[in-house]
Amino acid sequence: MGTIEIILHVGTCLLIVAAFVMVGHVLFGIRLAPEPQVNRRIALALGIEDRDTLFETPIVKHALVVGLVAAQRFPLFRDRVRQDLEASGNPNGYSVEEYLALCLLSGVASMVAASLLFAPGFGVWAFAVAGFMLAVGVWAPVLSLSASAGNRTRKIARKLPYTLDLIALMMQAGATFTEAIDTVIHDEPEDEFNQELMLVQREIGFGTTRSAALRNMAERIPLESLRSVVGAINQSEALGTPLSTILKNQAAMLRNLRSVAAEEAAAKASLRILLPSMVIMVAVILVIFSPIILALFRGGSVLG
Question: Out of 101, 171, 190, 219, which could bridge 244 as a Cys pair, Cβ 3.0 to 4.6 Å?
Fold first, then answer.
C-alpha cells in the first residue's frame, strides 16, 4: 500500500469517526424522556404481554435510543413504513419511529462495515462506497417490510370471497353480523383476514361504530376489493338492504374478477413464453443444419 493510499484510508476513517462524534453530540444534546413510548405505555396499562425485540434487550436498548432520536427527525419513508406496518399485521408491535430507527442503524452498520473492508482498496472511491452501503442498509429493511405486507395482503385477497360466503350463509341461518364474524374468527383464529376481523370486533367493543371500524380495516389493508366490500356493507346498513344478499353478491363479484385476472395472466404468459420458444426453435435449427451450412460455406459436398 502506497503512502497516498494510507493517507486516504486514515483520512476516511477520521472523517467517519468525526461524523459520528458530531451526530452523537447533536443527538445526545436533546433531553429524552425516560418513560417508554405512548404505544408501549398503553400496552402495559392494558396488561398485554411485553414484546421480545431489540428494544427490550438490556445490552442494546440504550444504544437504540440514538436511533430513536434520529428517526424522529428522519423525513423519508414515514408514510410507507406506517402503511406497511399496518398491512403486515405488525406482529412485533413496532411504532413508525422504532422501525425507522432499526433502518437507520442498519444503514450505519452497513456503512461502517463497508468503510473498514473496502476503504483501503477503493481509495478516493471509499466515500462513494460508504454512501452506497448506507443507502442499501437503510432501504433493505423497508423493502423487507413491503414484501411482508404484500404477501399478507395477497393472502387476505384470496380468503376474502370464502369468508364473505361463510358470513352470508350464517346470517341466512339466523345469526347476526357480529355473531357470524365471531364464529369465523373462532374457527380459524390464525388466519390473516380473521385477525383483521378480530381487530374490528375489538374496536366495536371499545365503542367505535361498525362502519368506522370497517373503514379502519380498509385503510389498514391496501386492497381495492376490500374497500369495495366495506363500502357495500356500510351502504346496505344506511339503506336497509339485507346484508346477507350484499355479501353473497360481493363474493360472486370477487370470484368473477379473479377469473378475469387469471385469464389475463394466462394471456400475458402465452405472449411472454413466445420469445423463449422462438429462441429455442432457432437454436434447434442451427444445431441440426449447422453441418450443412458449414459444408456449403466451405464449398464442399453436402453429402460427403
Answer: 171
